């Protein structure tokens, strides 16, 4: 696969960085070791400025080109997930219960590779801001960086991100204009009934029965309320209640997720979740407390920026390996907060070794090191194409 020759030269070095990050995963806003290594490497590469402490553990590197000009931002996420790794690779996580199950170790490494190349060559006019973001997984580190003024302190015309995609051919870029990833909401429902002996249910008010009715009713929210040509998801992924065979508990907790693209669909999902949960609980003489927490807006690619991203990707892998992404994914991404503030684009980079590869957020997932120089070359090419001398 064609990549920038200089970046190809340190492919093995990049693989070593990635394996080190993988062995030492850190969760959201805990990326102290990771961000420290990132900052040290940026200084080692000769990056002009290295700013730490943004959004607690975030890092921004500043590389100035060979002449004055405009500025762009390149972003990578750094955090891991609370998952027990089952890959069996020699560089597996050394921290039980934590692993890089989404490839952020690879994303960070690709941007470091681009930084090393750009700091050496300076074959562009203007400024490149390297945004190493913490806490993408559920804690909105992108939102915090925006709130802390990252675009005010580091003014840029456009911002670009990338995500590995193990379900697609290695080395192929996927693009689309408009929504590429969904908005995300968390659902937390506490149902309070009345506990009793399991053999005497008439003495209680069983919240497990009520919870089962609520979960079943939720299946009608999208099916019978969302316009068929629109998209929405309501999933209950966790139920907790009771401790043994023959005791009816006092409370049951339901936790789930909602996904949507259009804001009005998100409003509808929230209202229906609240109405059904509280209405069903009330009908049974119980109480339901509902929290619907909106985490991320939809990730929406701007058209002109997407065209620029496609051109850079094609320069690295060829036009025939830059393919249209027919459908957005219902996964969420807090790069959306950055795209709400600045024009930009978010591409997927295929990383599949075999059709049986584990997907992201799976305990057997592992980033494909063969695409490291491709992603790094893409970031570097964006800078050289968008900021020509």
Automatic annotation (TrEMBL):
This protein's record includes keyword Transferase: no
Domain Peptidase M20 dimerisation span(s) in chain numbering: 187-275
Ribonucleoprotein listed as a keyword: no
Keyword entries, A-Z: Hydrolase
Pfam families documented for this protein: M20_dimer, Peptidase_M20
Gene3D superfamilies: 3.30.70.360, Zn peptidases
SUPFAM superfamilies referenced in this protein's UniProt entry, alphabetically: Bacterial exopeptidase dimerisation domain, Zn-dependent exopeptidases
NCBIfam families cross-referenced by the UniProt entry: amidohydrolases
Protein name: Amidohydrolase
Organism whose genome encodes this protein: Pseudoroseomonas ludipueritiae
Species lineage: Bacteria, Pseudomonadati, Pseudomonadota, Alphaproteobacteria, Acetobacterales
